[in-house]
């Protein structure tokens, strides 16, 4: 078992230096190239002053170069923060501010975005490195270096001071109060999952693995390190294919993929557009999904067309690293109403269904779902309050490191011993696979001067998006506020996937007996009011 994540790549570089490690379109890197360039980057970062525990933001689009950057950063004993390049600078700036990064790595495409973020941040002492030969002078940057002479640095990795309990990366997830939460993930957290998954899925050098998810989502951690751990090939899916269901299917076919891993929305999208033929994808061995419920009709659709493929449901939040439980579907469900369990815990993990007093609830009863085990993050970045609320001591534990994470999910244990996901206990939703806290969306609208009041609710849909985000609002007196105007204002604060698509202007928001906004009533209004603007 490796001690650090970069050891996976170094080992494969010894075993198969000329084998392809990662590819996107016409750009690809062998294990040998990946190892050499990431080591050189690590030496360069160290020479620029990067030290153990420092953080480096990655503003690099999904590409083989992004994998070099990740490995280079961890080889420099630092931690990387993959930045969501589609989010507005006003949303990214607070995340970057609280991460207190030592530096940032950019590519030619993202220099302007970094410029915009730094304007939001103001004073800063970030060291900026470009992974490409691009001119950085004359901008806001306090101190710059570029990688143009990186090949003069040693091609062997430097000595590491890091241990498995050091942070490898920080991922940000939507937070209920408006500011996204940073989830630090250690080398040990990722290795625990990857080791289980490599054994369970029998990943091997001949595997051709999809890299569908964007690199700031934790599912991509499995794509990247699962591939490197096995000496397989990572085939990054070009993001523009996400709007082209035929293109996604053709990608699987023409690249001869053996494993597909994505959020269910993508599978729904392909099923809805009927792009998979009978016995399609002859090389495909596994189809995995995680992040939300895969509707049973979609599963039936795929299982009937692809009888040679194994289908596995993975479940888990970012805070517990990639996935904590799994269920490989033994046979095609008989009907559309058969629920698909989230199954049993992966090795080293435990799923607990508990009541308000942290006692196990009897089988069949719904309780709060907690996770215990090797994947648990050390806690939210620089937020002891949120950490204390979500990461609790294991009841009766004598070791303070023995913790359980409150997922916010509701679940039940079936008579079959398997865990079934029931829903959420809070305002977090998934829309098109994106984790969104409606609290963050609402906070963005509350910050708009033109509104007196507003409330954001979600409605489940049959479509691939999973949930529609709906905004009811009361304009400030004398102001005329249209949905397109609100959308424009909010798009400066929220990523596009979190913007409401249905709107309702009201004179006042409905309240319940306690004076709180009556959200069930609002949901009903949106459900029945077809005039709500889209
Ligand atoms: P994220 O941190 O983006 O991975 O989101 C974690 C949340 O996604 C979980 O707490 C669940 O609400 C949901 N989730 C993850 N996997 C599944 C699954 N297989 N089935 C249903 N919901 C899931």
From TrEMBL:
Residues 440-516 form the AMP-binding enzyme C-terminal domain. Pfam families: AMP-binding, AMP-binding_C. Residues 11-381 form the AMP-dependent synthetase/ligase domain. Gene3D superfamilies: 3.30.300.30, N-terminal domain of ligase-like (3.40.50.12780). InterPro entries: AA_adenyl_dom, AMP-bd_C, AMP-bd_C_sf, AMP-binding_CS, AMP-dep_synth/lig_dom, ANL_N_sf. CDD domains: A_NRPS. This is Amino acid adenylation domain-containing protein. It comes from Methylocaldum szegediense. The lineage of its organism: Bacteria, Pseudomonadati, Pseudomonadota, Gammaproteobacteria, Methylococcales.
């Amino acid at each position: 078992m490796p001690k650090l994540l970069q050891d996976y790549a170094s080992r494969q570089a010894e075993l198969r230096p000329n084998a392809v490690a990662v590819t996107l379109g016409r750009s690809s890197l062998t294990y040998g190239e990946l190892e050499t360039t990431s080591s050189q980057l690590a030496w360069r970062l160290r020479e620029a002053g990067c030290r153990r525990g420092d953080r480096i933001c990655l503003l690099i689009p999904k590409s083989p170069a992004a994998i070099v950057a990740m490995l280079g950063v961890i080889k420099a004993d630092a931690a990387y923060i993959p930045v969501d390049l589609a989010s507005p600078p006003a949303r990214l700036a607070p995340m970057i501010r609280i991460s207190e990064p030592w530096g940032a790595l950019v590519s030619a495409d993202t220099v302007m975005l970094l410029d915009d973020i730094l304007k939001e941040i103001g004073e800063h002492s970030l060291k900026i490195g470009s992974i490409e030969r691009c001119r950085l002078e004359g901008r806001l940057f306090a101190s710059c270096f570029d990688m143009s002479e990186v090949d003069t640095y040693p091609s062997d990795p430097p000595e590491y001071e890091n241990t498995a309990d050091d942070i490898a990366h920080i991922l940000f997830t939507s937070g209920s109060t408006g500011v996204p939460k940073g989830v630090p993930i250690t080398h040990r957290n990722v290795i625990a999952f990857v080791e289980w998954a490599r054994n369970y899925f029998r990943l091997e050098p001949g595997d051709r693995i999809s890299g569908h998810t964007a690199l700031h989502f934790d599912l991509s951690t499995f794509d990247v390190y699962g591939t490197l751990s096995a000496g397989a090939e990572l085939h990054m899916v070009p993001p523009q294919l996400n709007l082209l269901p035929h293109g996604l299917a053709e990608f699987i076919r023409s690249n001869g993929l053996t494993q597909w891993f994505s959020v269910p929305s993508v599978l729904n999208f392909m099923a809805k557009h009927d792009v998979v033929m009978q016995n399609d994808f002859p090389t495909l061995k596994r189809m995995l999904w995680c992040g939300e419920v895969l509707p049973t009709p979609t599963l039936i659709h795929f299982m009937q067309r692809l009888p040679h493929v194994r289908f596995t449901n993975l479940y888990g939040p970012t805070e517990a690293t990639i996935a904590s439980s799994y269920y490989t579907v033994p046979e095609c469900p008989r009907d559309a109403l058969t629920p698909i369990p989230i199954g049993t815990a992966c090795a080293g993990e435990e799923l607990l269904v508990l009541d308000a007093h942290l006692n196990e609830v009897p089988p069949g009863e719904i309780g709060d779902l907690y996770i215990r085990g090797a994947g648990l993050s050390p806690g939210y970045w620089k937020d002891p309050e949120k950490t204390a609320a979500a990461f609790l001591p294991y009841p009766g534990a004598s070791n303070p490191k023995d913790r359980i994470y409150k997922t916010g999910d509701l679940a039940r244990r079936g008579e079959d011993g398997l865990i079934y996901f029931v829903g959420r206990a809070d305002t977090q939703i998934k829309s098109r696979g994106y984790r969104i806290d409606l609290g963050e969306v609402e906070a963005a609208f509350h910050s708009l001067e033109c509104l007196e009041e507003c409330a954001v609710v979600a409605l489940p849909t049959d479509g691939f998006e999973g949930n529609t985000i709906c905004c009811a609002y009361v304009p400030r007196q004398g102001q005329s506020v249209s949905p397109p105007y609100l959308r424009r204002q909010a798009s400066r604060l929220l990523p596009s996937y979190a913007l409401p698509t249905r709107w309702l202007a009201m004179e006042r928001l409905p309240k319940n007996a306690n004076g709180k906004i009556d959200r069930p009533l609002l949901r009903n209004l949106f459900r029945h009011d077809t005039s709500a603007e889209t």
